[in-house]
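Dataset card, provenance and construction

Sequences and ligand SMILES were collected as paired inputs. For each pair, a complete structure of the chain with the small molecule in place was predicted and serialized as structure tokens. The example below shows a pair involving zinc ion. Curators did not alter the output after generation; any descriptive sentences attached to a record were derived from the structure itself.
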Amino acid sequence: MSLNLGHLAEEWGRGFLRDPGQYFAARKLRHCTVCDYRGRFMTGPGRRERRCPNCGSRERDRIIGLHLRRTGLSVAGRRVLHLAPEASFYRQWRGMPGYVAADLARTRTSERRVDITAIDFPDASFDLIICNHVLEHVADDRRGIAELHRVLAPGGTAIVSVPIEPDRQATWTPPPEMPKADIERLCGYGHLRLYGRDFEDLLRGAGFAVAAVVFSPAENDLHRLADEIVHVCRK
Ligand SMILES: [Zn+2]
């Protein structure tokens, strides 16, 4: 683990403004699967102990970090498309040959504009795609998944996650006349639907072989993963 003192100071300061009570609460020692930090996590929006103070990772970053660690899957030496990049990973991976950090708009953590429903790359351009908490914001998610399949090389892997309600079997799409504010209240900020366990079928429908990776209660606790699921899609 390398300590990022500048980032730690920033997170601790922000944490004090956001939730001073957290410093007096019982917080467990956690482990960050992105940067290897071991220590106490910080409050993030809506939840205590969400953020790693050393790299700023959230639950959604750490599920990817844990999957990469467990499988030994490395970004180095691969053609990688990272969509809506998490800052914690972007800082580690930027500048690597073959690594493309892309988002719908230009952001601090992306170098290229890419619309997931019309990815501006030829077929089979990437060995690894990371698409984490993106599709719930995309109106035509089927088209987006079809595009992920198209630009992935045969033998490649796409790591896809969306927020899924574990008890929900079928994905719920709001009726077209529902006001945006009501949709956001029900589905989450900027989210267009509530995915259920049938999300896997959507991925399979595009031609992927899919494995849902569910983490154990002990892993959820140690790394603070919020029961998120990673879908590993192979072509
Ligand atoms: Zn970290």
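Derived descriptions for this record:
Helices lie at 5-18, 59-71, 87-93, 141-151, 180-187, 199-205, 217-223.
Residues 5-18 form the longest helix (14 residues).
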